[in-house]
Structure formats: structure tokens, C-alpha cells
Specification:
With about 100 residues, this protein is mainly alpha-helical. The chain has 3 helices and 3 strands, in the order ββαααβ.
């Protein structure tokens, strides 16, 4: 079945993440998992780790500021869920 709507714009991600999984310690059993896409990882890296403004980060990724803001919001939501609920976080290594 053909996808509907606008085609997804190619986004620029500068390099692969050094790790593909982060797991909490001290939680018995197998905790749930959450997945962070490459786009979301890059948004967090640019905005929170490197301190870029949303405008600078959006330009670096080759997307609009609104799109960058949406990606960053989703990434922060996933990360907060992982921290609060003690889940494993996986970083997507292959684009789906």
C-alpha cells in the first residue's frame, strides 16, 4: 500500500550514536523498552548536549524549525518516560 501525504524529507544526522542501548541498573527482571529514532537522538544531541538554538539545530538537520521542535518534543517525552518508569532505551540504528 502506498503511503499517503507528503513524503518524509531526508534529515541530516551527523554520525552514528556510539551506543545503541541504555539500560537502568537496580531494576530486577526485564524492564520494558522504548525506542528513540535517529532523528530524535540527533535533536537531543544538538539542542540539549551541544546547546544549539532550535533554529541552528533545524538548519543543521535540514528541516524546518517547526519540524525540529516536534522531533525534540517527542524525544524528550520518550526520555522522560524511560527515566520515570525505569525502562531500557534503544536508539534506532537502521532507518525504517
Amino acid at each position: 500500500m502506498k503511503r499517503r501525504g507528503r513524503p518524509k524529507k531526508q534529515r541530516i544526522v551527523l554520525g552514528e550514536p556510539r551506543i545503541s542501548q541504555f539500560s537502568p541498573r537496580g531494576k530486577p527482571g526485564r524492564p520494558d523498552e522504548a525506542e528513540l529514532s535517529k532523528d530524535e537522538f540527533e535533536a537531543i544531541r544538538l539542542a540539549d548536549y551541544l546547546g544549539f538554538t532550535q533554529k541552528q539545530a533545524a538548519k543543521s538537520m535540514g528541516v524546518s524549525q517547526q519540524t525540529f521542535s516536534r522531533i525534540l518534543k517527542n524525544a524528550r517525552k520518550i526520555i522522560s518516560d524511560v527515566i520515570v518508569n525505569g525502562k531500557i532505551i534503544r536508539i534506532q540504528t537502521v532507518e525504517k
